[in-house]
Amino acid sequence: MTRFIWVFTVIVFALVIVLHELPKMNWQPSFVLFLPKLNAFINGTVFILLLTTLWAIKMGKISMHRKLNTVAMVLSVLFLLSYVTNHYFSGDTIYGGEMSGLYYFVLITHVVLAGLSLPMILFSYYYGHLNLVHKHKKLVRFTYPIWLYVAFTGVLIYLFLSPYYGIA
Questions:
Q1: Predicted confidence (pLDDT) per residue in 47-83, tens digit
Q2: In the chain, how many domains are there?
């Protein structure tokens, strides 16, 4: 499974890099216009799930903690599929607002931390699934706040860009 996590991480990195190098499509299905909002909803939901899963584990509700983390993982996979689909058809959206310094700080930290956290999230989940509590706890100390930040800033990025979606 360790090899799968690293291979999956490399494939996701490569896919995201290639996506940003592809020319914008001349057409797009109508559902693509809804994907940025869906992505923000997924990120917001993951953020809430992560807060709830922390509460669950602090309350000793291990079964609930596991279920919430599984839902967060499934939503993250759905986010990835939606993100890839959106960027394949729409390309990048350019921010045109007055708070560009703040926007680019949030965007850059979001992208860098999302990339760095991917294998950490996968290993954290894997260790928890195998009930390797010591390894899980040790890794989650770093992974959790990063994943929480990435989910929250994903919503912020949507809010920054929402006035510019669909503008050529």
A1: 999 999 999 999 999 999 999 999 999 999 999 999 9
A2: 1
